[in-house]
Design a protein that fits this description.
203 residues, alpha/beta, Spore Coat Polysaccharide Biosynthesis Protein SpsA, Chain A, seven-stranded mixed β-sheet, two-stranded antiparallel sheet, 7 helices, 9 strands, globular, Nucleotidyltransferase family protein, transferase
Length: 203
């Protein structure tokens, strides 16, 4: 890996997924693995330097179901505070372990259509535009997966609410480079959505 493009991936998987009822979203079956397992496989097959996963709710169940031997685990004890707290926990971990990265790619455990090709496309765009925040374009907003250069790490470390990084993205509009995910951005936020995606995939 080129030393100039030292990028880490942070997979957010600490949430309670309350809209799933008693089901643990991170370990729902997907292909021959789980939703989180799939996200980690896509990260592993991308051109990234290091992979971290943030766990919180259902930590023990997830660790029993998902192969995490080669993944650095970050525990977010404040997971109830939402996505922002998991991002902050990631940055705090880097600082406490004296880990240095030029950029951080933030992705979710519940976007199963996000693949290594898209992650590589994002990283390629950041390498060509290292002053930019590379985001994913949604219908009416921009969001994750997203890449932030190290100059944004201090802001990311201050996040503590469920809106994640969207306020940082909104406050740096001039620095945004948004990519079209071509339908891969869909996230599983309910049992119904999960069933719909499974049905489409089976056709």
């Amino acid at each position: 890996m080129d030393e100039k493009s030292n990028i880490a991936i942070l997979v957010l998987a600490a949430g309670e997924s309350s809209r799933m009822g008693e089901k643990v979203k991170q370990i729902l079956p997907w292909k021959d693995t789980t939703l989180l397992g799939n996200a980690l496989e896509q990260a592993k097959t991308s051109m990234v330097d290091a992979i971290f996963v943030v766990l919180g709710a259902y930590e023990e169940k997830i660790m029993a179901e998902v192969q995490l031997e080669s993944i650095a685990i970050i525990k977010n004890h404040n997971w109830k505070d939402g996505l922002g707290s998991s991002i902050a926990a990631g940055i705090e971990h880097f600082s406490s372990k004296a880990l240095s990265f030029d950029a951080l790619l933030i992705m979710l455990a519940d976007q199963p259509l996000i693949d290594s090709n898209y992650l590589n496309k994002m990283m390629g765009n950041w390498r060509g535009n290292p002053s930019k925040i590379i985001t994913t374009q949604y219908e009416s907003r921009m969001g994750v997966p997203a890449i932030f250069g190290k100059e944004y790490f201090t802001e990311l470390q201050k996040l503590n609410k469920d809106f994640g990084a969207k306020d940082i993205i909104a406050s740096h509009k001039d620095a945004i480079l948004a990519l079209n995910p071509e339908g891969k951005e869909i996230d599983i936020d309910s049992w119904e959505t999960y069933q719909e995606i499974l049905n489409k995939k089976a056709k």
